[in-house]
Amino acid sequence: MDAVLRAVADEGRRTILRALADGPATAGDLASLLPIARPGVSRHLRVLREAELVEVRQQAQRRVYSLRPEPLAEVDEWLSGYRNLWQHRMAALHAEVARGKRERRSTT
Question: What is the pTM of this model?
Answer without folding.
Answer: 0.75
